Amino acid sequence: MANANLNRKAAEFMRGRNGADELAVCAGLLALVLAIVDVFARQVWLTVVVVLLVAYAVFRIVSPDVAARRKENEAVMERLGPARLWLRNPPAALKESREYKHARCPRCNQVVRVPRGKGLVRVTCPRCGEKFELRS
Ligand SMILES: [Zn+2]
User: Fold this and answer.
1) How many other C-beta atoms lie within 10 A of the C-beta of residue 92?
2) Do the beta carbons of residue 18 and residue 62 sit within 8 Å?
3) Which residues are in the CB-under-5-Å shell of ion ligand 1?
């Protein structure tokens, strides 16, 4: 009963807030890893970095400015390119890397994927229409 009440209060608090996006999760995971390292290293600067990372993650999660946080998250995720899937869904990323080869279009740099094991394939870039050959 008290637990359900707490859950309802937590849900009410989080309404209209950003929540745990990829950047918040990354900051949190990095803080966790560095905190474990810090247990052995015992460096003040490392403790400060851990606290700042946790603060950044909490700031992102509870931020009411969802549009701005989403824009920041998208900007970083855009730069990550194919690594993005590894952050979002590691099992799916593993499957993807086993089944498809990823390459960049020589003209516009768009990432294209082709099924692996099909030999030499002719690729038409979905963005600019450039045709190029690729060994899958
Ligand atoms: Zn292209």
Assistant:
1) 11
2) yes
3) 105, 107-108, 110, 125, 127-128, 130
Cβ distance 114 to 101 under 8 Å? yes
- Tokens 């637990």 belong to 3
Place of tokens 């509870």: 62
Q: How far apart are CA 70 and CA 42, in angstroms?
A: 35
- Separation in Å, CA 116 to CA 68, 83, 100, 105: 39, 19, 5, 17
* Ligand 1 geometric centre to CA of 111 (Å): 8
Distance 102 CA to ligand 1 centre (A): 13
The per-residue pLDDT string of the chain (136 residues; one tens digit each, 9 = 90 and over) reads: 578 899 999 999 999 999 999 899 999 999 999 999 999 999 999 999 999 999 999 999 999 999 999 999 999 988 887 788 887 788 988 998 899 998 999 999 998 999 999 999 999 999 999 999 999 8
Q: How far is the CA of 106 from the centre of ligand 1 (A)?
A: 7
